[in-house]
Amino acid sequence: MKVRTRSSAIIGTLCVVAGLAFANASANEPADGPANSQQKAAAAVALKEVGQAENPAAGTAGPGDSVWIAERPGRVRVLGPDGLGEPVLDITDETTIDGERGLLGVAFDKDFAHFYIMFTDLEGTSTLDEFAVEDGKLNEDSRRTVLTQEQPFDNHNGGQIAFGPDGMLYIALGDGGSGGDPDGNGQKLDTLLGKILRIDPAGGGEEPYKIPDDNPFVGQEGARGEIWSYGLRNPWRFSFDAENGDLYIGDVGQSAWEEIDRQPADSKGGENYGWNQMEGNHVFREGTEPENHVPPMHEYGRDDLACSVTGGFVYRGEKLPDLKGQYLFSDYCDGTVRALQMEDGKVVGESDLGVNGGEVVSFAQGPDKELYVLDIGGTISRIDPAA
Question: Which of 270, 300, 318, 321 could disulfide-link to 34, CB 3.0 to 4.6 Å?
Answer without folding.
Answer: 300
